[in-house]
Design a protein that fits this description.
single chain, alpha+beta, 33% helix, rod-shaped, transmembrane
Length: 418
């Protein structure tokens, strides 16, 4: 009887009853919360889909799988051909030509992982924030710069036109002109910038290419302005001295058919080159320290002297001239021009606003040097030689059309051995 009373009393103990009820409720709460978290995760967090209110630029990819989002974004943002236009011609650059593409997969992965790769609580926080605001991802393009450069090189080859200077050929008093050509040069830097802008702005389609005009330094009009003979001078030589005669012929050919633009300087030595056997010259008598010796190039001073006299009478500016050490047989004192490889040169420049043309001709035993130019530049010139016991002073006198003296110009002082 007493034992039964104890058991009954224990069963109905209020404290034990409340504890058990509390434990049951706690377990139920844990189970319900766990289920809710499980359900939340499966339905909203780790459901294999992108979260709500996620955009790639203007495309809503909310609640899509990665594959669905990639397909949708790729459909809305496609790379297209670039059409390069110049002078009625079109040159296509296809996306595959330069590996042009958008980083769609990379961006979709970032969008997918926006609520999945950080800490759990950060992911939940982002998920709830997305209920109030959108999250936008931006596409970026990429292409192969080397392939683009190579493609543009091919386009440039089809567009570029080499610039050509006009040329003048005078033979037998006949003037023949080869016209100049304006060059065309594909502007690589500017055209690349236009392509970059089109790709970055996604405004595909036509791009007008920039091509620069390259003007010739010597135009057809400049060359055509040479229309008359300004001056000429001739000397004679013996054809019996074969080496010397050949040197005159070689040097005459090398200094001839030269167009000298306004302000340019003509160098006899630069045109003839050093006087050596290897350079096409022959042994012949040369004045060395007042004596005649055989050496390569003997005779070239007759060519320089003949040219010098033509230059004097044409009014060109004498930049450098030096006389021989003894009086020459083919020119009087004060009118010879000695040249050598050690520095003595005949140099003159063009003072006119038009080009001048130097012509040198050998015919039999006669050497003739001619200076052609514009008829408006043709001077009226006299050469005055003031002799003195050991040499002469050379002057050039300019006159007007009526023969009145305009000015007297000192040219050089020549000193010779006895």
């Amino acid at each position: 009887m007493n034992n039964e009373a104890v058991v009954e009393k224990d069963i109905i103990n209020p404290k034990n009853y409340k504890l058990k009820i509390s434990m049951v409720i706690s377990i139920l709460v844990i189970l319900i919360c766990g289920y809710m978290v499980y359900s939340f995760n499966n339905n909203y967090m780790y459901n294999g889909k992108i979260a709500n209110n996620i955009f790639v630029e203007d495309v809503n990819i909310s609640l899509m799988t990665k594959e669905e989002a990639i397909a949708l974004v790729s459909q809305n943002y496609k790379t297209e051909a670039l059409l390069l236009n110049y002078n009625g011609k079109t040159f296509d650059i296809l996306p595959e030509d330069i590996d042009l593409k958008y980083n769609v997969e990379e961006v979709i992965n970032s969008a997918y992982n926006y609520t999945k790769t950080d800490s759990y609580f950060e992911n939940v926080k982002r998920l709830f924030q997305l209920e109030k605001t959108n999250q936008n991802f931006t596409l970026e393009n990429s292409f192969d710069e080397a392939k683009l450069s190579k493609h543009l090189e091919n386009v440039a080859e089809k567009i570029n036109v080499p610039v050509k200077n006009a040329k003048l050929y005078i033979s037998g008093g006949s003037f023949n002109v080869r016209p100049s050509t304006t060059g065309k040069e594909f502007d690589v830097a500017t055209n690349k910038e236009a392509i970059y802008e089109a790709i970055n702005s996604r405004k595909y389609g036509e791009i007008s290419l920039k091509v620069n005009d390259i003007n010739p330094k010597i135009s057809t009009e400049m060359v055509k302005s040479v229309d008359t003979l300004l001056a000429q001078h001739s000397t004679t030589f013996s054809t019996n001295l074969a080496g010397r005669a050949e040197n005159i012929r070689v040097s005459s050919n090398r200094i001839s058919d030269v167009l000298l633009m306004p302000g340019e300087v003509y160098s006899y030595n630069n045109l003839t080159g050093i006087r050596t056997i290897a350079n096409g010259y022959y042994n012949a008598p040369v004045i060395v320290n007042g004596d005649l010796e055989d050496a390569p190039g003997g005779g070239v001073c007759q060519t320089s002297t003949t040219l010098y006299n033509a230059v004097l009478y044409s009014g060109l500016k004498i930049e450098q001239v030096k006389n021989h050490s003894i009086t020459s047989s083919y020119a009087p004192r004060g009118k010879d021009a000695m040249v050598n490889d050690s520095g003595s040169d005949l140099k003159f420049s063009n003072p006119y606003d038009h080009p001048i043309y130097v012509k040198s001709i050998v015919s039999g035993g006669t050497l003739t040097c001619q200076i052609y130019g514009n008829s408006a530049d043709k001077p009226n010139v006299d050469i005055k030689i003031d002799p003195f016991p050991m040499g002469a002073k050379t002057y050039r006198i300019f006159k007007d059309a009526s023969g009145n003296k305009i000015k007297t110009e000192y040219i050089a002082t020549s000193v010779y051995k006895k």
